[in-house]
Design brief:
The structure is a homodimer of 258-residue chains. The first copy, chain A, contains 6 helices and 13 strands. The first copy, chain A, has a 9-stranded mixed β-sheet, sandwiched between helices.
Chain lengths: 258, 258
């Protein structure tokens, strides 16, 4: 158990861009109780996962600076933002926690793999810092963030005080609800997307093109220990995530056949 | 144990683009023994991870078609390619294996998180198909792929015949060597990148910009069971990977404090 810092120092990023309502709400909620360094993409980067920018230079500019709150906008991906902060912008300060979010849209179950918000937390964990991702299951740009307020402050302080082990982070998803029934610690549910490529005709007669859409199918709707079950029952879903992806149970069987 | 198919049907993608030498070598090696459907990005997509295209339409075109080999070039990411293939291009055929690669560059340890080649295998596994990613630890565009030839055929047939469990795939990395000392089943090693943002001055005086570079530091160089150790000792590293990222060991401790 590490000591709870009087005023924690938080590094924040997201995948919806520095002007997104989810990030602005996070700043509003956390700036009274913490010092914040925000390094976020200059625009939307939904579905970025852990993408890094290998083929172009990255720029960033300070868009706001006052006591306890500095905001940078970066041309790169969410993961680039964390790498840039760690290598260039922290200048020796050690964040007590790295936060991704609040994402507009559900990052539970397999969606965690596609999520730039989880990219932030993944990179934070890889860099050796306690990290947490916040998402709300509501794509509406006018989504109501108010019910999240007390949970975010509480989870932020707790994530710091409990001291997450190396290579782990927390994936926190909030249901779309006026009131939550509490917090549940979950495992990542099993789901799969179907009907993902909607075909449309080019209006100029140049063949057709596709939009990535689809239906997310819960493959185990009866299992009460998954993040998806918690969300479907108006609980806040907290899933501890590890970035050591080794399938340990397969090592011995594979050693016999390969 | 499922039966080894006489002539397997393979779905192949990569993150270096359909014209990349690694992919062309894979086609050369596998087309005599398997039917191939290739759906790959039209150009390089290094560092794509599991990125999906949410903000633009996706197009694809058939660039080559003969008996047993069809190649599509796609404007999207490696994961988009697999989604497009599964939803639109397979037309009811069931791939015996989904393959990503051969990637130019090391995808061992934490690099797996940033890799578009692993994105292919991740998506394949999420879609419910046995999947495998091949990478060589050599960024040289003229890299010598010849030593990989027998291993690729052998691993392809074995990955099919052993029947990988759901939500798992194999991450195969080849060392840069004339001859390999054999195959080792590994766990994902722990490493971290440092000095990642190289700062350069804009030639027109418009501030500075950054290039993502860096040094990959092995955090456990003495551990003989990691992928990085195997590669450093000229072994082919086969790491079984799971996409259920739950940190199960944390569920109970977190239930007590959150």
């Amino acid at each position: 158990m590490s000591k709870r810092p009087a005023k924690p120092f938080l590094l924040i990023s997201n995948d919806d861009g520095y002007q997104a309502r989810g990030l602005q709400f996070l700043i509003e909620v956390l700036s009274p109780v913490a010092d914040l360094l925000v390094v976020a993409p200059e625009g939307p980067r939904s579905g970025s996962a852990c993408r890094i920018t290998c083929d172009a230079p990255i720029r960033c500019r300070c868009v706001s600076h006052r006591r306890g709150l500095t905001v940078y906008a970066c041309t790169g991906t969410p993961v680039d933002c964390i790498k840039l902060a760690v290598d260039r912008l922290l200048k020796g300060r050690v964040p007590d926690l790295i936060i991704g979010g609040i994402n507009h849209g559900d990052n539970a179950s397999v969606n965690a793999h596609y999520s730039g918000t989880m990219g932030v937390a993944t990179e934070g964990a890889i860099q050796g810092y306690p990290s947490i991702a916040f998402s709300i299951c509501d794509w509406n740009p006018e989504a109501n963030f108010e019910p999240l307020r007390p949970y975010i402050v509480d989870l932020m302080f707790k994530a710091i005080s409990i001291g997450l082990p190396p290579l782990t982070c927390l994936n926190v998803n909030f249901p779309k609800a006026e009131k939550f029934r509490g917090v549940r610690i979950c495992r990542m549910g099993s789901s799969r997307w179907a009907n993902e490529m909607q075909q449309r005709k080019d209006p100029r007669g140049n063949g057709h093109y596709y939009w990535l859409v689809g239906d997310c199918i819960d493959l185990e709707p009866e299992a009460e220990d998954t993040d998806r079950w918690a969300l479907a029952h108006d609980f806040v879903a907290v899933t501890p995530v590890t970035f050591d992806c080794t399938a340990y149970g397969l090592i011995e069987p594979l050693q016999k056949v390969l």
